[in-house]
């Protein structure tokens, strides 16, 4: 009997494993972490010797987010006085704009702790290292939504 040829294993690459878009010619050392909120995932790289620029999905942060969310994203950098030390390059997917901003803040905070573990207590106290695990509850059969039941009729 002829032997069946074995197919070489194919490494499936899922969307969350993609590396953030790196600016051309960037060879600096970086600190990597990912942040999550609801269904949003942020893959974050903090590049040393930066000017404080934040790039999200290849765009400046002001083009991707607005007003309050930009301040929310920059909070861990301002709190630890590292805003002018790093350039932040992030790839964000899934969720809405607010969840993406929270995921990005979470990722920046985790990357800062890999840079300097002494920053961990301050970030932990501010709640930036805690992953907010609240997600939308699934719909159950027999109900309109997760918990909304049909109107009850007495007779």
**Count of helical segments?**
4
Order of helices and strands: EEEEHHEHH
How large is the share of residues in beta strands? 15-25%
The CATH topology assignment of the domain at 28-126 is Ribosomal Protein S5, domain 2
CATH architecture of the domain at 28-126: 2-Layer Sandwich
Describe the largest sheet.
Answer: 5 strands, mixed
Structural class estimated from helices and strands: alpha+beta
Cα-to-Cα separation, first versus last residue: 73 Å
Shape estimate: extended
Low-confidence spans: pLDDT under 50, at least 5 residues?
A: none
Rounded Rg: 21 Å
Reading side by side through the largest sheet, how are the strands ordered?
1-2-5-3-4
Mean pLDDT: 88
CATH class of the domain at 28-126: Alpha Beta
Give the helix level as a range of percent: 25-40%
Number of strands: 5
Could you please describe the fold and organization of this structure?
With 155 residues, the protein is α+β, with helices and mostly antiparallel strands. The chain has a domain at 28-126: Ribosomal Protein S5, domain 2 (2-Layer Sandwich), CATH 3.30.230.10. Helices cover 28% and strands 18% of the residues. The protein is built from four helices and five strands, in the order ββββααβαα. The protein has a five-stranded mixed sheet. Strand 1 and strand 2 form a beta hairpin. The protein starts with 29 loop residues before the first strand and ends in a 29-residue tail after the last helix. The model has no long low-confidence stretch (mean pLDDT 88).
């Amino acid at each position: 009997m002829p032997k069946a040829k074995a197919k070489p294993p194919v490494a499936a690459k899922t969307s969350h494993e993609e590396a953030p878009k790196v600016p051309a010619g960037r060879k600096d050392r970086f600190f990597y972490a990912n942040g999550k909120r609801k269904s949003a995932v942020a893959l974050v790289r903090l590049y040393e010797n930066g000017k404080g620029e934040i790039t999200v999905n290849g765009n400046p942060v002001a083009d991707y987010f607005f007003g309050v969310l930009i301040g929310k994203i920059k909070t861990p950098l301002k709190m630890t006085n590292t805003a002018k030390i790093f350039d932040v390059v992030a790839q964000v997917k899934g969720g809405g704009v607010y969840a993406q901003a929270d995921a990005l803040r979470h990722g920046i905070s985790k990357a800062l702790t890999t840079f300097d573990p002494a920053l961990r207590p301050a970030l932990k106290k501010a709640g930036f290292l805690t992953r907010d695990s609240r997600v939308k509850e699934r719909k159950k059969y027999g109900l309109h939504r997760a918990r909304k039941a049909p109107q009850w009729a007495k007779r």
